[in-house]
From TrEMBL:
Main location: cytoplasm
UniProt protein name: tRNA threonylcarbamoyladenosine biosynthesis protein TsaE
Coiled coil: none
Alphabetic keyword roster: ATP-binding, Cytoplasm, Magnesium, Metal-binding, Nucleotide-binding, tRNA processing
Organism: Rhodocyclus tenuis
GO biological process: tRNA threonylcarbamoyladenosine modification
Localization annotation: Cytoplasm
Gene Ontology MF terms: ATP binding; metal ion binding
UniProt-listed Gene3D superfamilies: P-loop containing nucleotide triphosphate hydrolases (3.40.50.300)
Length: 167
């Protein structure tokens, strides 16, 4: 796994295989703080749920971790922390975010991972960190972009937890 800094608010990594995706999720877990909104952007099969699963495992969650494609949201209770994993792929209209009462999950006490955030555009609170995953040859490219000060703090801590540090 190697990376490069385009600027202080973006970190790009090449993930040659699943083990490096898990390592990136583990590094992300170490930097998570309550209140963070993390948008996961990438095509189907790009590794979004794999990254979330790795983060949850690193936070000592041992139960099943599945994509919330049909349920819209999965809740994970981690000691004193709540982590919500959303998947809005099946939303037909952004207003469905409001109709389903999903705004109540966006509190300072929880962490949120959101797949397909564009499907709830205009209703979703802003992201702190954008996570872009895309296929690249046999592996994937991972780009982390801080949008807020909280996202910047998270990004700084992620780079410090990557194996060997980010080059």
């Amino acid at each position: 796994m190697h990376g490069s800094d385009h600027n202080q608010s973006t970190l790009c990594l090449h993930l040659p295989g699943e083990a490096s995706t898990i390592a990136a999720g583990t590094a992300l877990a170490a930097a998570l703080k309550p209140g963070l909104n993390i948008w996961l952007i990438g095509d189907l099969g790009a590794g979004k749920t794999t990254l979330v699963r790795a983060a949850l495992r690193a936070l000592a969650y041992t139960g099943p971790v599945k994509s919330p494609t049909y349920s819209l949201v999965e809740l994970y209770k981690l000691s004193s922390l709540y982590l919500y994993h959303f998947d809005f792929y099946r939303l037909n209209h952004p207003e469905e975010f409001v109709d389903a009462g999903l705004g109540e999950y966006f509190t300072d006490a929880a962490i949120r991972f959101v797949e397909w955030p564009d499907k709830a555009a205009g209703f979703l609170p802003r992201a702190d960190l954008l996570v872009r995953l895309r296929h690249a040859g046999d592996g994937r490219e991972l780009e982390l972009e801080a949008v807020t000060a909280a996202g910047q703090q998270c990004l700084s801590e992620v780079s410090g937890h990557l194996p060997g540090g980010a080059a």
